[in-house]
């Protein structure tokens, strides 16, 4: 059984099995520093990684520490606050690894709102090696990490979750992998005419394989992958940037800006942000905006005009530092303003260039 693995945040070890499209998430309670952070990361994973397939949770401590029922109750209550019941309905198994608690104790601390969904899905094993009975095979590296406290889990830096400037930057001034993806779309223009383009997700296994190639900067394999897989990587890497392309403050300012604000006022606000954005962020925005304009030209075929594309891509550029999943209206306002930004992105870049030329002329005089 092949696996892709990454240590996402302290306390969450993600294993994406390559058989059956079934992700497995291992919560290591003694490694958790911030329960809310882990539960929000868990929610993000469930949204973006094979979002319609069943998944498995495993809850444990590193094996030299006893797993206490109070710990179990605390983590379940926090997860219950941050993970919608609709997502939990996809769970196939919730497995606890402990030789110090019993199954009935676990059942008794399951949050009431989850009890119906988890009926007959809660399992208990005494040791890590018994996970194989649930078709979970750990690598030796993972077993070593889960078996000893303070043992360092050595993984390569995950491809998702970096700052945009941390990716290798190409001659065009944007990350190499983004340049490769944009060139891929130029070669596969028919995909951009496909109905619902950018809304569909590709195979999680193929996505993971493509990420492996990107890790070693092998972009020549792109044409071997389905367009939906390429689009999944394209969207996920943008959505999961450590710092979004636009600063967190911009999301909050746009959310508080009335939807009927004058175009001139909104453009002036955007212009200030663009002037202070790093060059790689500006250039990336311009290149992706050009792609979205091109896709919108095929609206009669793909049903994806700029409004629909803004719904898909606004979260790739703008997000709050702490996600509030109940703030639907605020998100809609941000999408509306993002649409205007994309329509006028060339204006900001030209203004910045003119301002810099004017400044240079003043220095020369």
From TrEMBL:
Keywords: GTPase activation. Residues 162-349 form the Rho-GAP domain. One of its GO terms (cellular component) is cytoplasm. GO terms for biological process: signal transduction. SMART domains: RhoGAP. InterPro entries: Rho-GAP, RhoGAP_dom. PROSITE patterns: RHOGAP. One of its GO terms (molecular function) is GTPase activator activity. It holds the Pfam family RhoGAP. PANTHER family: RHO GTPASE ACTIVATING PROTEIN AT 16F, ISOFORM E-RELATED, RHO/RAC/CDC GTPASE-ACTIVATING PROTEIN. This is Rho-GAP domain-containing protein.
